[in-house]
Amino acid sequence: MIRKIRLASGFFTVGIWTLLSKVLGFVRDIMIASAMGSGPMAQAFLIAFSLPNMFRRFFAEGAFNTAFVPMFAKKVEAGDSPEDFAREAFSGLASIVLATVLLGQIFMPFLVLAMASGFADDARFALTVDYGRIVFPYILFISLAALLSGVLNAIGRFAAAAAAPVLLNIILVAAMYLAHAMGWETGRVLSWAVLLAGVAQMALVWRAAQKAGITLLPRRPRLSPDMKRLALIALPAALAGGVVQINLLVGRQVASYFDGAVAWLSYADRLYQLPLGVVGIAIGVVLLPDLSRRLRAGDDAGGNQSLNRAAEFSLALTLPSAVALMVIPGALVSVLFQRGAFDAADTANTALAVAVYGAGLPSFVLAKVLAPLFFAREDTRTPFHYALVSMVINAGLAIGLAPYLGFLAAAIGTTVAGWSMLLLLWFGARRLGPAAALDARLKAKLPRILLASATMGAALIGAQYLLAPWLIGSPLRYGALAGLVVVGMAVYGAAAMLTGALRPAELRAMLRR
User: Fold this and answer.
1) Segment 133-145, tens digit of pLDDT
2) CB 141 within 8 Å of CB 148
């Protein structure tokens, strides 16, 4: 059942499936933007869909899995009945989330007001409550799927867990086609499709775990010593997750008072989530169980090697992505989204948010590299304290700047809070011993990656100027954007090789591993 985890191959497995999911997510959001633009139905669905996603990150991918994965990985390493522990955790999580779903159905109007009080006096409120009640049970299925994914990741089986999100986007894209063909209300069809996708995702990873020799069926929850320890570790992580969700709530609240802003920020979020998902999520998923195993075995040198190569890998892909988002946001948004109900004004506002989020992208990804250092040591309290500081910074900027900068204040608050969180994690990690130290190779690579990324940015600005007649409103705009992307990749690749930021031999060695 247990296989040796290969860090680089794990990154690529998770990254490739995440990339496919994000591409399909773009197709989904392009269709949503074309059908609903930034109008009331689009804003209602986006807020409703964010409700189960918020609770899923709080329960499963956040607090619960942050505590569960290191404990499970250590039991796997020690051969200490990991399957029994997983069954107990599965039953406990199912009970908690089921109760949350029932309460959510009752108090849905209050949840909507907590997310977007700017909807209170117009038609968006009733529509969001209606959609919210349909999609909210999604958290039950996706939370259990996240726990099963944590089990699979801890034993080195990444493919099924990484592929599960692809199902969501396939089902939502199919639902969009069906709604258009049948003339049904798009928002309602999408809401039911989300619920169906949750069932499909859980079924996929449950079957994969069963094939790996772990069959998890719900049973009566009990408060065993392991579950007490899990709860004690998860509580600070849950509080930290609550802080993160408060940051998101602040942004949505600010956006809800500006007509169309909920949609603009959501579409901008999709663009920066592509590199964040492909790189950051892949690293976070693979690095946490790997560090947990190494630290359990007392392998600080191996942990340090894993951490530094993860940071190097993430910087090599994230910094050029961040530069691209900052220098050509208008071209990206107009080609990808501007059609149907999504007009030029929507493009301009979304592009502003994309540029601001792009500036924060490296911090969001590197935080996912550093956080596992704490979680692997079952320290969830320290990241919680750091998250509190970032929450205050985010709320102060988003609310304080809103009267002057409008909806863009929410994006600025998110970006500045991201860099603040990264700095706090970095200074805190330096106290964790040799596993947290930067090695000579990473120190030498960083300035070279920065130089290669800046060179690419300059090339993109020039190429965008030359291709401008074909990028906006032209039938050739897809080809023009593809040409822009190819130019960026070619220039970055050449600059990275010339500066030594990337070396063919190092890439080949990582792929062989």
Assistant:
1) 999 999 999 888 8
2) no
